């Protein structure tokens, strides 16, 4: 057996953790069988995007090979079959997040577009002096659309602070909810720190004052079991590509009454009921918000990804990733000169850290030479970097297919980077 094959076995020969047969599941992801720079790929950049199982890849190919047609408009067989597959994926998405009604599921390009949709459409009711409350740990996608809405309307963006562990200060959050607060927009799971926010509690605090809440679930949906009815959130946004699904497809969940009252986000095909030159009437939900030919293959691929994670089981995935994060945190603590950024009590799937004397980008380059893919940078959360006084972090993020052996490979490579830059 050559060294690469031996290394593969060392990485893949993981004992099943907490009920998940990781070794078997890994074979569902063809990309994981690759080598990078002559080393077995250790893919720990899952918070940026996760890898796709064969079933998702096959599903998209199958759609183009056998079903491709535009949806909702054709009377011919292919169009009806494609429409059925597209709408079945909407049903699967409704089931995944336990939405009360299928028309509450709007397909968009991703979390970013979902938040922009709300900021633009719901944002039309903002007036000068109104307030939007976000947290200090938001991704740029949950900051910039609100800044743009504030620029358009004269509304004010308020930011609830976090402590040194990366946890939201609940008293401060509550204090910032005022008579002019029109919306709270907060992340469920921070992509830069790994903090899991107590969103149910935040929603209760906001609702007690009649304030609706948007939850950015880009990082949460792949790692936690999300129930939008139990949370009672008003909007919930997430992306397919972080959930083992295709890129370019995402979901906006919105309570039907709110979505119904909102003006369309974009104009064009599918979102209309009737068009004359003097007036256009709009389609019913969710089509009112799905203008133009959608990413049909992406939606159907997302449906396959949802089927995949549902079959594996989100609770089992969460348990496995939790064990990996705990193991990685323990390993990190043994490395001198390593400081973890984000030490909240409630964390999931993400380990961000900095190394004395080694810039995260340099560390990333050395890790890559060892076949270890992590993210080095500000993670589209520049204000978080500023809060912790670092220019960037190294971020390892875990998925259902990662193993303890891969965590060991990560820290072997980290030690190598420290040696190189000693
Ligand atoms: C917390 C969070 N919000 C929003 C986004 C934006 O997601 P997308 O680029 O898929 O629209 C990301 C992506 O990393 C994220 O981690």
From TrEMBL:
Gene Ontology BP term (one): cysteine metabolic process
Cofactor: pyridoxal 5'-phosphate
Gene Ontology molecular-function annotations: cysteine desulfurase activity; pyridoxal phosphate binding
Signal peptide: none
Annotated EC: 2.8.1.7
A Pfam cross-reference name: Aminotran_5
Reaction catalysed by this enzyme: (sulfur carrier)-H + L-cysteine = (sulfur carrier)-SH + L-alanine
Functional note: Catalyzes the removal of elemental sulfur and selenium atoms from L-cysteine, L-cystine, L-selenocysteine, and L-selenocystine to produce L-alanine.
Name of protein: Cysteine desulfurase
Species in which this protein is naturally found: Cupriavidus basilensis OR16
Organism classification: Bacteria, Pseudomonadati, Pseudomonadota, Betaproteobacteria, Burkholderiales
């Amino acid at each position: 057996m050559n060294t690469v094959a031996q290394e593969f076995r060392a990485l893949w020969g993981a004992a099943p953790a907490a009920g998940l047969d990781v070794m078997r599941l890994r074979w569902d992801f063809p990309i994981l069988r690759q080598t990078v720079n002559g080393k077995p790929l250790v893919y720990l950049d899952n918070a940026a995007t996760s890898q796709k199982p064969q079933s998702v890849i096959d599903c998209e190919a199958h759609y183009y090979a056998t079903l491709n047609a535009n949806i909702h408009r054709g009377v011919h067989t292919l169009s009806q079959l494609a429409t059925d597959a597209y709408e079945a994926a909407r049903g699967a998405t409704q089931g995944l997040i336990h939405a009360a009604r299928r028309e509450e599921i709007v397909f968009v390009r991703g979390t970013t577009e979902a938040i922009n949709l709300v900021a633009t459409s719901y944002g039309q009711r903002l007036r000068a002096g109104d307030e939007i409350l976000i947290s200090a740990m938001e991704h740029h996608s949950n900051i910039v659309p609100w800044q743009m809405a504030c620029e358009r309307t004269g509304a004010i963006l308020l930011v609830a602070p976090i402590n040194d562990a990366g946890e939201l200060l609940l008293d401060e959050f509550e204090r910032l909810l005022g008579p002019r607060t029109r919306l709270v927009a907060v992340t469920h799971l921070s992509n830069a720190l790994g903090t899991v926010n107590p969103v149910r509690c935040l929603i209760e605090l906001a609702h007690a004052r009649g304030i609706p809440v948007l939850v950015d679930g880009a990082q949460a949906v792949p790692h936690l079991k999300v129930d939008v009815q139990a949370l009672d959130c008003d909007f919930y946004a997430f992306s397919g590509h972080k959930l083992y699904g295709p890129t370019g497809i995402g979901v906006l969940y919105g309570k039907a009454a709110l979505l119904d009252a909102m003006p369309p986000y974009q104009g064009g095909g599918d979102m209309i009921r009737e068009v004359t030159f003097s007036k256009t009437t709009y389609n019913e939900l969710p089509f009112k918000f799905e203008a133009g030919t959608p990413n049909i293959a992406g939606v159907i691929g997302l449906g396959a990804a949802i089927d995949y994670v549902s079959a594996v089981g989100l609770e089992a995935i969460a348990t496995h990733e939790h064990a990996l994060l705990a193991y990685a945190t323990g390993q990190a603590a043994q490395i001198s000169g390593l400081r973890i950024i984000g030490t909240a009590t409630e964390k999931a799937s993400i380990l961000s850290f900095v190394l004395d004397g080694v810039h995260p980008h340099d560390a990333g380059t050395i890790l890559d030479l060892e076949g270890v893919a992590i993210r080095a940078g500000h993670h589209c959360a520049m204000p978080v970097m500023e809060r912790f006084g670092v220019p960037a972090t190294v971020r390892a993020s875990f998925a259902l297919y990662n193993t303890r052996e891969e965590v060991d490979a990560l820290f072997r490579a980290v030690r190598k980077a420290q040696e190189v830059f000693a």
